[in-house]
């Protein structure tokens, strides 16, 4: 079978050849002219993308400001609730501990293995003996003067016998060698056959003392007492580190957020050519150094860079340089206290930015 090429088919074939060879001919000026016209369409679209980016940034700043205000209100409310609810208990327990220490006949300092389950059992026995004497006598003052009263001190803890078959633990927290605050925990011991319970305390409500009681107190009271002390000291340490960088470098910190136990901390450094975001996460509530760290440098508009416009199949998309990890800063935060690491970051930041963007 033979196919006959019609006149119209021949003309159509010729047009296709001319189109396919048009850019391979010697007529380069016409091709360049076409590319110039095509290129002119990119600029307006790029400008639109740039304006859209600025609009998004503005809305993000507004949202961030509202969220920051909400967090501040929540923090103030939580602090007020905690302070008001604990104030009466705290003042009463302070007086009880002062009275117990004033009436003591001996204060024993315990080192290392001297603080053990056997000693805690001795304290518990003293508490019950004193309660039985007073119950039998019918007069709380009859034998009190003749009974030896011992207070024990180990680490940041003072352990003493309180009236009513209670064991009192006072925790002394500190930062940089200076005493910060006292916290109290009172254990009730009804009998040797029953487990001890937490009767009252002044531990901040956001620290898991009840969970710790359920996990440890019945099986290992000494470990419970130590763990509560570790929770309190680590909390105060993290809190004071944040307070110190705000006090020393507040003019450089644009935003700072943290959880109530200070085990999640985020802040932004704005006083530089780049916005630097720092995000810290702590493995648990007894850690004083973060384990998950992210420090990113985000280029600001005033840095000397040109937005890159990439031609896509569906148009033009503007893209700014991506944020860059500051590994030296992450290493510093992993091994130093927050104020020390902050000073190290600021000291080396100009050089790091120079290497990255210039």
Major sheet description: 6 strands, mixed
Rg is 35 Å
Separation, N- and C-terminal Cα atoms: 71 Å
Helix amount = 40-55%
The class by helix and strand makeup works out as alpha+beta
Reading side by side through the largest sheet, how are the strands ordered?
A: 1-2-3-4-5-6
| Helical segment count | 8
Give the SSE order as H and E letters: HHHEHEEEEEHHEEEEEEEHH
**Domain module tally:** 2
What number is the mean pLDDT?
79
Give the low-pLDDT segments.
1-7, 22-43, 303-318
- Give the amount of beta strand, in percent: 15-25%
Q: Overall 3D geometry?
A: elongated
Number of strands: 13
Provide key terms for this protein.
CENP-O, elongated, centromere, 2 domains, six-stranded mixed β-sheet, Centromere protein O, alpha+beta, nucleus, 23% strand, 358 residues, 13 strands
3D architecture notes:
The chain is of the alpha+beta class and 358 residues long. It has 2 domains: 85-237, no CATH class; 250-357, no CATH class. 49% of the residues lie in helices and 23% in strands. It has 8 helices and 13 strands. It has helices at residues 7-21, 28-40, 42-102, 117-137, 209-217, 221-249, 327-335, 338-357; strands at residues 106-109, 150-154, 157-162, 166-175, 178-188, 197-201, 253-258, 264-269, 274-281, 292-299, 308-312, 315-319, 324-325. Strand 3 and strand 4 form a beta hairpin. Helix 7 (327-335) runs antiparallel to helix 8 (338-357). It starts with 6 loop residues before the first helix and ends with a helix. Residues 1-7, 22-43 and 303-318 have low confidence and may be disordered.
């Amino acid at each position: 079978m033979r196919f006959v090429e019609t006149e119209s088919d021949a003309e159509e074939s010729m047009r296709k050849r001319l189109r396919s060879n048009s850019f391979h001919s010697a007529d380069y000026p016409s091709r360049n002219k076409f590319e110039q016209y095509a290129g002119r369409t990119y600029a307006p679209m790029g400008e639109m993308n740039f304006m859209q980016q600025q609009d998004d940034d503005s809305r993000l700043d507004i949202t961030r400001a509202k969220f920051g205000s909400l967090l501040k209100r929540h923090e103030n409310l939580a602090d007020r609730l905690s302070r008001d609810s604990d104030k009466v208990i705290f003042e009463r327990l302070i007086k009880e501990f002062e009275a117990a220490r004033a009436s003591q006949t001996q204060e024993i300092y315990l080192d290392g293995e001297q603080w053990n389950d056997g000693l805690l059992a001795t304290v518990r026995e003293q508490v019950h003996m004193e309660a039985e004497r007073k119950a039998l006598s019918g007069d709380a003052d009859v034998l009190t003067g003749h009974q030896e009263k011992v207070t024990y001190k180990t680490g940041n803890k003072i352990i003493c016998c309180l009236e009513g078959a209670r064991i009192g633990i006072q925790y002394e927290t500190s930062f940089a060698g200076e005493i910060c605050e006292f916290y109290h925990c009172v254990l009730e011991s009804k009998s040797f056959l029953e487990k001890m319970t937490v009767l009252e305390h002044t531990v901040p409500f956001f620290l898991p003392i009840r969970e710790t009681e359920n996990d440890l107190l019945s099986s290992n009271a000494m470990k419970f007492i130590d763990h509560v002390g570790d929770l309190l000291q680590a909390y105060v340490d993290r809190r004071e580190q944040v307070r110190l960088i705000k006090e020393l470098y507040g003019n450089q910190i644009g935003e700072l957020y943290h959880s109530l136990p200070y085990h999640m901390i985020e802040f932004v450094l704005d006083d530089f050519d780049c916005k630097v975001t720092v995000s810290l996460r702590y493995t648990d509530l007894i850690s004083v150094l973060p384990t998950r760290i992210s420090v990113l440098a985000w280029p600001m508009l005033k840095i000397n860079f040109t937005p890159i416009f990439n031609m896509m199949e569906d148009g033009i998309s503007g893209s700014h340089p991506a944020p860059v990890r500051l590994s030296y800063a992450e290493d510093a935060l992993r091994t130093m206290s927050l104020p020390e690491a902050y000073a190290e970051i600021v000291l080396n930041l100009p050089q790091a930015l120079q290497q990255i963007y210039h």
